Amino acid sequence: MSWQPLWLSFELAATTMFFLLLIATPLAWFLAFTRIRGRGVLEAVFALPLVLPPTVLGYFLLVAIGSRSPIGQWYQAIFGSTFAFSFVGLVFASILYSLPFAVQPMQNAFESLGRELSEASRTLGLNAWQNFFRILLPGARVGVVTGAVLSFAHTLGEFGVVLMIGGSIPGKTKVASIAIYEYVENLEYHAANAMALVLLAISFTVLSVVYYYNRRLSRMVLG
Amino acid sequence: MLMVNVKKKFSDFEMNTTWRAGREITVLFGPSGSGKTTLLRMIAGLEQPDEGCISAANRVLFDKKNNLKPEERHVGFVFQDYALFPWLTVRKNIQFGIPRGQRRSSMVWVDTLITTFGLGPLLDKRPARLSGGEAQRVALARALAPHPELLLMDEPFSAVDGTLRIQLRNFIRDIQKKWNIPVILVTHDLTEAHLIGDHLVRLDAGRVSYEGPIDGLVQNISTELMAAY
Predict the structure, then answer these.
(1) Where are the alpha helices (DSSP H) in B104-213?
(2) Is A120 in contact with B85 (Cβ distance < 8 A)?
(3) What is the pTM (predicted TM-score) of this model?
């Protein structure tokens, strides 16, 4: 069994989690507190990957960033390689695919925090940025951590989108789930078993750590 | 001196008020939905009037050209539900409004607040472990810590009763006398208003129906009642 697909899955999950922390945190804050019309439509758009079959999302993305699309051509002109069937393309697709898994716990955490703590901090002299980093982020940290870890775990197990956007290029886009699929196709059940068990153990550990951390944090807040 | 002259349209009524508050306890009194809390929020910069002017200590907080942000207004606000930061200890809640660079030099001041409000034994507790009266005192100390130019309190007696209510009332009176800042306090309880206030502004559906000494309002209401019967 080659460890390379597992390592690539890790790299993809960690990179996706990093970018989702940067993108999903302000997005979740915006969705939690905005009073604009059409907020429901926006929420539905960002939640679409939850219900859309991964192959459908993968297909749309392939159309959007494939080498015939304007985005694909633009990318190729600048970087000299294709956007689809590359690690960068996989990261892009994974960010979209895992977005609701990051946004929703974060948004719930911001919403349950309410406006009053922020208003109190503003009257105590904090500007909007300081308020974000000293009130909103610490107050919603359980949701932020949960969102980040869920997006990591979700990316680790993705299959349909990866297959559509990345195919199975060893060292570039062949992640663990694709490798397991190929092992089974080639009747290499021993390797498939080993890799599936490793993925199961990692997912279980990650989720256990999150639940433990969340419980500890809630107890800490309650003094 | 605080001067308030604001207009704001709502779906069910239009607020249009002009009143003032000196270095005393001013009570904003009126039934629920008359606009008392909205007015406090406008003074603190948490809500914006449609037009008008708000000034405090010769500084314009809001008018046609200016609209200071809440953090620029130097206004202490005690929220009805206290709004203490649940993940911070009582000490850190009190210090919150003091800029980090000034915390060392403000230690004496923070200790004064802690002593004044009897918070010594609570300093390492988190807000979830405090009683209503304790949380109220922490909220007051926190609001006063950055030396506000005026203090706003939204229904400060709603969550406390009995002896605690009397204690809190005396506390607020003492603070106002000690630090000599305008205190504006919202209540819908006439007895409470009478017991604590110096100056009273009565609001009815967004309009000032009485402004003057507390005793004047009692007389005013008696006349209304007599006219009604």
Answers:
(1) 107-116, 132-144, 163-179, 190-196
(2) yes
(3) 0.83
